[in-house]
Structure formats: structure tokens, C-alpha cells
Amino acid sequence: MPPKSLIDLSHPLTPQTTIYPGDPPFAMHSVCNIPTDGYTVHAVSLGTHTGTHVDAPFHFFAQGQKLHELSLERFVGRAVVVDVRHLACARARIRWRDVRECLDRTRGTIASLGPRSEGKIDMVLFWTGWDGWWSEQKYFDHPYFGRDVAEELVEMGVQLVGVDTLSPDETVLVKDGGKGKEDAFAMHEVLLGRGCLICENLTNLGELVGRNSEEGEEVWVSLAPLSLHGADGAPVRAFGWTEKPR
Asked: What is the tens place of the pLDDT at every residue in 12-58?
């Protein structure tokens, strides 16, 4: 039986799509149209990390798994949504002690996280609320997570971490000093280095844990990317739903 309702967790791709500094912009233009050709076709240009997307280990590691080497099952499963909105200040670093306190208040505690082979949940999604600044300059000033968060999650067996921000790491702009900050990509290095996937630019995570969710229901998500052979990442049409435990 299909879910009673699906929640769209992806931002639409438009000319206003927020792009990570230095990445190619999104563009779409008509190449065929019905009055002239009898049918419509568009050409699309974008980077592998455009909009809501996943990062494969190859994004940071030359010998890391590429997108086509990952099983489809890695992108679909139960998830814990961690509400960290009260910690989400501009360019604020969120540490493990903060996350742990939030997990203790979140449906699906630390004890529920771990390998699927043990019947546990291996997907963690951080709800900062920063998706409300999508397409605005302030979106670049998102909160981010400390290296200790990544280390603790992979140690528990988490296999995918998602965020509703541009990156789980701080986005450093040229005007702010550019590259070279210590631990600039700590989350990427630890997570991808241990084979844990990353999903960025999620939205509507709050709807997954909204008031309409029935007590005892589990959160499920599908974060399956485009099937790009040899890629380091790809856009996702992410969606989620809730259901009773199977």
C-alpha cells in the first residue's frame, strides 16, 4: 500500500537556485518547440551538486565510491529528524553535545541509531530551518556542524547525513577570507571518508515531524539521485513519509 501522503523535500531548480560558490549555475533553455518542431525539448546545464543533492565519497576522495557504485538501497530508508532550530544562528557551529541533547528530546533516540543489519536507523536528517532563506544571500550564512558530530555518527553506524543547508560544513566566501580555514570541510572529510553519504539543501523537514504525524509512526525518506555513471554526486528528487512500524 502506498504512503497516505508524500512530503516533497527538494527545492525546485530555477535560475534563482542557490549554488555553492564556484560551482556551475543551473540553466535551462528551449531547443525544440511545438510551433516549429511539433514537440518540446529543453537543454539543461548544471553541476553535480546543484539544488537538493547527494554527495558520494568520490566527491572528496579519489579512491572513494562513485555514484554508480552505491546500491539504490543506500538512499531509501527510515530516518531520524533532529530538530536543532534553536541552535541555528548565522555561522554558528553545532557541536556533538548539542546534538546529543536534541536526540534525547527527539522521537528516535540515540539507541535507535546504528546499522540496518541490527534493525536500527542509519539515516539522520538535521532540521535547522535555514531552508527558509533559500535563494537569499543569508542562505550562505547557515549554521554548520563540528567534526565531533561526524565522528560520533559514523561510530554509531550512521550511513547518511542530511541537512537543510548548503553544506554541513561552514560555507566560506571569498569576501570572508576564502579557503584555508582550519577544519573547513571536517564533516565532508569524516563522513565521506568513512563511506557515509551526505544529502544537502533539503527542505520541509519539519513536515515530517509535524503535528499531524501519528504517535508511534516512523519517518521514511527516499533520496535517490540521478543515475550518473562515474559521478561524485547528483541532484535528488527527495521525498518523505511517515508510517506505522512494519
From this structure: 999 999 999 999 999 999 999 999 999 999 999 999 999 999 999 99
Contact 206, 74 (CB under 8 A): no
Q: Tell me how far apart the terminal alpha carbons of the chain are, to the nearest angstrom.
A: 12
Strand bridging mode 76-83 / 123-127? parallel
Say if residue 189 is exposed, middle or buried (CB neighbours under 10 Å; 0-12, 13-18, 19+): middle
pTM score above 0.90: yes
Distance CA 48, CA 67 (A): 11
Q: How far apart are CA 135 and CA 51, in angstroms?
A: 10
Range 185-204 average pLDDT: 98
Residue 101 neighbours by CB under 8 Å, 6+ apart: none
- The number of beta carbons lying within 10 Å of the beta carbon of residue 213 is 15
Q: Residue 77 is inside which H or E element, if any?
A: strand 76-83
Smallest CA-to-CA distance from 88 within 80, 77, 99 is with 99
Distance of CA 67 to the CA centre of its chain: 15
Q: Are the C-beta atoms of residues 145 and 169 closer than 8 Å to each other? A: yes
What are the CA-CA distances from residue 192 to residues 59, 70, 71, 90, 140 (Å)?
8, 13, 16, 25, 22
Largest CA distance in the chain: 61
- Given CA atoms 203, 227, 5, 102 in this order, what sign does their dihedral have? negative
16 CB-near residues (< 8 Å, 6+ apart): 135
What is the mean predicted confidence (pLDDT) over 84-91?
96
pLDDT for position 44: 97
Cell of 7: 512530503
